[in-house]
From TrEMBL, chain B:
It comes from Paenibacillus campinasensis. This is ABC transporter permease subunit. Belongs to the binding-protein-dependent transport system permease family. InterPro entries: MetI-like, MetI-like_sf, UgpAE/MalFG_permease. The keyword Membrane applies. The chain crosses the membrane at residues 28-56, 93-114, 135-155, 190-211, 223-243, 283-308. One of its GO terms (cellular component) is plasma membrane. Its main location: membrane. The keyword Hydrolase does not apply.
Amino acid sequence: MNRVSWKGKSLMTVLALLLVITGCSGEVQKEGSTAEEGGIDRESPVLTNPKDFKFDPPVTVSTGIRWSAQGENEFKEGETIQDNFHTRWMSDSMGINLTFDFVVPNLEDYQTKLRLMMAGNQKLPDVFTTKVEMANDLISAGKVQPLNDYIDQYLSDNLKAIYEKYPEVLYPVTRDGQIYGLPNMFAMDEGTVMWVREDWLNALGLEAPTTIDEMTEVLRAFTEDDPDGNGKDDTLGLAVSLKEGPYNWMSSADGLVGAFGNHMPSKYIWEYWNPDESGQLVYNGIQPGIKDFLAQMRDWMSNGYVDPEAGIKDAAKAGEIAASGEAGIIFGPPWMDGYPLGGVEGFKAYPLPAGPGGQQARAEKSMVRDYLVFNKDFNNVDAMMGYINKIYAASFGEEDPYFDEALRNGWMEGYDYVLHEGNVYRGNFDEHGIPSDKWPNPADANVTYDLTLPFMNGIIPFQSDSAFQKFLSDPDADPDNMAEISVSKAKPRMLEAGIVRVSQNDNVIVNYFNGPPTKTMVSKGELLIKLMTESYLKIIYGDEPVDYFDTFVEEWKKNGGDQMTEEVNEWYENVKQ
Amino acid sequence: MTEPVFNTDKKALRLPTRGWRAYLQKTWPLHVLLLPAVLLALVYNYIPIMGIVIAFQDYKPWLGFGGSPWVGLDHFRYLFEYPDSMQIIRNTLIIAFAKIMTNMFVPVIFALLLNEIRIKWFKRTAQTLVYLPHFLSWVILGGIFVDILSIRGGIVNRFLGTLGIDPIAFLSNGDWFRFTVIVTDAWKDFGFSAIIFLAAIAGTNPSLYEAAEIDGANRWQQVLHVTLPAIAPIFIVVATLSLGRVLDAGFDQIFNLYNPLVYSKGDIIDTFVYRVGLLGSQYSFATAIGFFKSLIGFIMIVISYRLAYKWAGYRIF
């Protein structure tokens, strides 16, 4: 045989092999069948005995989790994420055996894992959390089951009341009135406050600004009057990140945008949308108030009051000059007390300044972290509902019908707290004279163990608001629920900042659109966001006149913005009833 | 141990005369040795090529390759009809081409210079120091360069200030941004890329230098007529391979350095795809872009390979 035919033969072998393999992967399942109701053919102990229900024989629930050790004191010796005090509590007290299909270290791996399982048509875990985009895919694929009946029958009334209070948290997982997921909510304690160098104010004999005009004067003084008294021209007024638009997770300018109207641009096309007078949702980034904000920033920038590199720095980078003592004002959440401002004693939290006509507002972030969804083939949903009720009851307090005594002071005695002579202690065990064998870690008096909850965090939005004043007045006060326990650990300056934040809770900018991205969002969203961030910075940096804003708005509308607005309102009409 | 695998018998070393069967009989151990590499390439490089079909589909993971609807060239059309796409492709080509040029010539020049150094410890230290940046991630370098190149007290602008030059906005002026991207990329990688040229220089036959010296060549002439021809083949290989990356302008670097102020001069295909990808899992679009880039890269490699053969008479394979 000559060389050519040998080549031809091997090529054919390869092709045949490829065909075999394609044939295999070609066996993909048909369009996902509609989820069947997981029927429960037994009497549910959750209904007969809400406080102390126990499944006998025990039920098994599989899940997947994203978890990685944050420090060396994550678990006690011999405990793991798969087998720890919490999973044992679940099986011992409720008869729910938890198994883990996979444990991965970060969100990206978690999403990939689930996507692969979906693509390979493998069995998904019984119950697991997922971000809204993937929840959307899972629902479309018919992989998860509707929960309406279970919510009606089993979910605690207190939790249902929360969903009624914030109905929008369920919109993204609702299809034709069927609810496919339960939201894990945020505590909503991250609203922006204004951090100002109080020592600089005192040194220059100034008051903290309450309006934008007063702020201009303070920024000028911070920049030009040598507030740190070292005789060098090395300070400036405002540290801020404008690279990804004015709203960011810290070093934000949302408190300044809010001084010019109740509209907030963001780097994501799906926020912020809120209703105008006619009730139609409008895109916030093109509203006239933004133009005034840009004009003000441009003015400050040209005078050198603002970090000249605000446009190229992300939030963490922008915070550095506040942390190094070069900038006098920075906006961001109360937790900036610890990072990045932990090393600068002089910073103190103040309310956001008011703009023309007393207008003042901040952006409020989305209320939902992710959703808990239930595999369409999973039959023990009632057990999970009972467990979820108990976790939330720990937040609602002892009045809740599902309140479990075991969770009164924390997740577990000897882990996150210690009971000693009738008192509860959560740290400094040696100072309180507690014998070391009772410490969570007998080798270290300050170690307590946090818990990574496998399904729901049990957090209720805004529940901690009242706790800030309580623990500022009396650091040793007794916390009444899980939210208060977490606030009780905060330092005084952060508690003060929390109080400042709560004082401005009445005027927040909320995003009304939280459905899946619309068609035009997917095809044109990137273009529109790029156009917006570019135009904003060109105006702030003086590359274009302020009136360029009007050109930008025209362009924005023409390039798909109008169409997107229509789609968003179509969605809004559907969910609003 | 068993007997040696290779037959050193004189008869077996003769070229095969009785067809491939006899040939195989004698050389099968070599084929067995090659097998794992072929299998690896097949499993990890060739079979996944089938995934390209999703570039022509509206791919949904739960529908699979078989069930996702076909959309023809829609994703490619989208890339080219996008209002910004010409700008993005132009930026990509300019930055990538400039990087290929600098990354080819700077390491060669550095290798030649280093080769002339006689002090061994200095030579070794210098070589180690310049290739270290290769191992730093752009996430870290991005933060460092924002500080170093700051217009407010950055070390570079302070130095320029002492020369009486006004601060330069390296990262927020479009033209300077391109310059910065190209120079910092060369800085990061020239030491590492020089290793291959240093190896080629070290492999030059010393007798050639001796002969040149006897013929009265000075050092410069030696470089020109001995060293350069010696490393020319390696240079052509590197050049040919790097032309395949003509649409790779360096995602990590640009992503960590760019900002809206320089979009018009610094936004590249990969950063664009990243931003589009933020809006959900657009597998098909990403695959289409990847396919497009590979296709262009493949064409460039074929062309440059032909040119290398035509002009330099050099063949890799």
